[in-house]
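ERR on first pass: missing label on line 2. Operator R.T. fixed the label and resubmitted. Corrected input:
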Amino acid sequence: MAKVLIIEDNPANMTLATFLLQSAGHSVLPATDAETGLTLARAEQPDLVLMDIQLPGMDGLEATGLLKADPSTRDIPVVALTALAMKGDEARIRAAGCDGYIAKPLAYKDFLATISSHLVKAAL
Amino acid sequence: MTSTDLVVKPAPDITASPARILIVDDEYKNRKLLEVMLAPEGFIFLTAASGAEALASAAVESPDLILLDVMMPDMDGYEVAFKLKGTIGTKNIPIIMLTALDDRHARMLGLSAGAEDFLSKPVDRAELCVRVRNLLRLKTYGDKLAAALQALEVSNEQLAAALAEASEARRMAEHANNAKTQFLRAMSHELRTPLNAISGYTEILEMGIRGVVNPEQTKDLGRIKRAAAYLLRLINDILTIARMEGARPLSLVAIPVNQMLAEVDGLCALQAKARGLTLTVTPCRGEVLVIADAERFQQILLNLLTNAIKFTPTGGSVEVTAYSVAGIFQLRVKDTGVGVRLLDIDRVFEPFVQIDRHLTSDTQQGVGLGLSISRELARAMHGDLTLQSVEGVGSTFTLTLPIASDISATSETSPAADESPLRAALAS
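pass 2 clean. output:
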């Protein structure tokens, strides 16, 4: 199955996403800030990045921009998993380069379905 | 202002408050003579026997006109005129100087000192009266002009102050609005983050991944899920009311009313039964199509029915009647509940207002956004939501919506929809 990099600073939500992805057979690389996440993405070449947006230091929008600007990482799909769910948030997040958007609180089935569809699209 | 009420009188010589004339001459008989000559005019006379006295009197009494003799010991008439014209409080009082006949030099000196007019001695009575009247009339105009100018200045100042105040109020309102947006943004984010963990872990437990879940635990997990769902709805309701949610735009289509009513009836029947209420739904005679957004239409109906069920005591009834009148669809939801006081009828549609919270149990309590949102939605769909109620007898909510006149052309919104602020908010 796929290798997913999760960039998320909230421990409970990190554990939850890790568990859900592992239960679907994926392997997980955890990063609790954007800088670590970028380093891991370049070194490990994950199949997908699950990106929290509000992060300490560099935020998820900037991190996504850097991933998409780097030839070594720009083809990795980035799916935002964020509690920013107000008017205009999704558009703003997609404009920053995210390929997908999942609003918190997530629903288990929708969450896995969205991840799978992006993995399938990237594999084509 | 240099003068009294007199300044606003239309004519200087014939009114309730007569003009006041200051006569300045060092000789008593001259002063008396002028008084006698002017007596028929009905003026009030003030007198001064020296230049110093004249200056003091003019400053204190503000006469309407000064008759000023030139030849006086100590301070002559020119000096007096010069001083009066150089003082703000007295410079607008007209001065007639009394000079010797044909004394051109004296007249030139008077003119340069600022006197308005001259009379030659010996004074001719008729000429005196005419000149005094003329100058008084001019002074009245001058005073009026000064008063108008001052009033204008005052209004200008007030206008400037009002403008400054308005712009400050606007600045503060914008600031408050920004603060509100920031607050709601932060609130939404901060509440969703833990809510994600709460619902996520509940789902994991429910699936039995952490071990077998016994029936009691399943029930508890159900309660956690419902509470989490309620909390999420609450966050979304608050954002909706703040017109900030990124909701999808209204999609106005023709909707068969009776089908929708049957659906809602099915959703609420159990709830009504559990409360020991009779719920009767009377559909329209024949098929009626309304122009509405299906999901929002149902949201309004559910809100009205659950409200009615919530606020009606056991043994009561909730009647839903649908009909069409003059091309308008009307739906009445009538309950035998607690009712609403006349005073509160408009307030129930205000956000966050819940009348008589104590009548509902804790689990049923909302934040009071349902009716407010329902009315906004009804209006956005070119309808309305109104309430008639008698306290202690019951309430009747009436929802109106436009009927689809041509069934084939129903999938588009009408242009007027753009005028609704809610629609604009929902669409953007």
